[in-house]
Amino acid sequence: MSGTVYENARIHTLDPDRPYAEAMLVRGERIVAVGDLAECRDRAGGGARHVDLGGMAVLPGLIDSHIHAASYVRGLDQVDLRGTASLDEALTRIAGHAAALPPDAWLLGGGWDSNRWTRPVQPARTDLDRVCPDRPAALPSIDGHTIWVNSAALARLGIDATTPDPPGGQIARDEHGEPTGILREAAADAAYAVVRSPHAGDLVAQLRVHLPRLLATGLTGIHDLDGQDARAAYETLYARGELPLRVHKTIPATALDEAIDAGWATGDGDRWLSTGPVKIFTDGALGSHTCLMTEPYDGEPGNHGIAVTPAAEFERLVATAAGAGIAVAAHAIGDAANRMVLRAYARWRESAGPGPVARLRHRIEHTQHLLPDDVPLLARHGVIASMQPTHCTSDIPLTTRMLAGRGLASYAWRSLLDAGATVAFGSDAPVEDPDPFFGIHAAVTRQQPDGTPPGGVDPHERLDLDTALRCFTEAGAYASYEEHLKGRLRPGMLADFIVLPTDPYRVEPARLRDLTVALTVVGGVVRWQR
């Protein structure tokens, strides 16, 4: 087998031994040679196929280390409330969508952000009832930690004035004790069960149709943090030969016992579909006022957020999972939640033997707001910071208003890297857009798309382009235990790479967000082409 020579290109390998090349030889799903044209042609021999890339740039395939791909593809067929400027605008969109639904269908979708409305009021079931009175509606907020439901949905879910708040959750109530239609954290679990059910459509078909959207952005691999229904859908696509990119699939905490009984361990699987860590929520989100903070929220003296999983229970789950060979990915946004997770991981390291400590790579998902003294602890305890750069820039208005003066290390990827931690980047789509170049732009500039604020928010935390790319490539490969296979372009690695008409290293940082992909190759096969 002579293979394919990709030539006349500016290849950025991210391999420190040979950072640049002009040609690459691929055989099967592996890279055989990377170097100058004569070298690769000679290695290929006669009969090789030659692909002239016309001077375009080549990068290793990008990896999204935190995405909810199932939720993302489902949302493409649902009502989209992103960017609404007011409750009235949101209700207008909802009414239009409801009118086109079959009579027995749930109204699903979401992405609303009342913090950005001109009048930032919390919506209520009575608002939804005005435009959607005859069918149940469940609409998650942009951060996914709150669901807005109507009266019909509350009835279907069996939630009324007598329903107690569940542990780790809150049913918002009016002055008479009646549910307002806002369900936070664990109180939203029953509504999320609907959102992730066949009521939302055929997930296998939705993934088959829409996963190429991710390939088009330059993603060749994802770490999916959705539920067991997503795992089953990926398995179906894989069995059919229809899985177009590599998936590292996490385990929801609710399925931990099932995973242990089945003998799953982190890293099991193959190069296309592998088992990831178990995801455990420890708090909520800043926008929902539910992430766990050391200091109470301004104007809310008793509200420090919600401990979705209390410290003692989290430590028990870490020990249980790790004892079965399953790493932990802890959702932690607030400074108090991150400190709690780091303490639990430190105690686990003290009690575990050298084998598990060396084998398991625990993670913190989001790692958004840290007490400065906790920054070096991630490297000390071998914890991966799984971060989403566009959260930083999207949250600028929110953090400016809510966290000013607290002295936190927020979205502190430069500080974490300087301390020696591994930082793996992702998008958290559908919370944010899955385009990794949006994330690269945010990591390098720490500015919103319009270039504000000048110099970026906390500019000392900005990254150079090369480092940002490594957080979207080799760090993601490390987080899935595949650094020997992915993340760099060198002989022996998987032939996962992307081709760009514009070289990222030759554009102004402000233009990184505008980069497009011409070709996406996974396992030596062109999976997407513009």
Describe the overall structure:
With 530 residues, the chain is an alpha/beta fold. The strands form 5 sheets. Strands 8-15-16-17-18-19-21-23 form an 8-stranded parallel β-sheet. Helix 8 links the parallel strand 15 and strand 16. Helix 7 crosses helix 8 and helix 10 packs across helix 11. The two termini are 28 Å apart.
Topology:
Layout: E1 4-7, E2 10-12, E3 20-21, E4 23-27, E5 30-35, H1 37-44, E6 49-52, E7 57-60, E8 62-67, H2 69-75, E9 79-80, H3 87-99, E10 107-110, H4 125-131, E11 137-140, E12 146-149, H5 151-157, E13 169-173, E14 179-185, H6 189-195, H7 203-216, E15 219-224, H8 228-239, E16 246-252, H9 256-262, E17 273-281, H10 311-323, E18 328-332, H11 335-351, H12 354-359, E19 363-366, E20 369-370, H13 375-380, E21 384-387, H14 389-394, H15 396-402, E22 409-410, H16 413-418, E23 423-425, H17 436-445, H18 465-471, H19 474-479, E24 497-500, E25 519-522, E26 525-529
Parallel strand pairs: 1-6, 2-7, 8-15, 9-10, 10-11, 15-16, 16-17, 17-18, 18-19, 19-21, 21-23
Antiparallel strand pairs: 1-4, 2-3, 4-5, 7-24, 11-12, 12-14, 13-14, 20-22, 24-25, 25-26
Overall 3D shape: globular
Share in β-strands: 15-25%
Which structural class best describes the helix and strand composition?
A: alpha/beta
- The strand order across the widest sheet is 8-15-16-17-18-19-21-23
Tally of alpha and pi helices: 19
Proportion of residues in helical segments:
25-40%
Poorly predicted regions: none
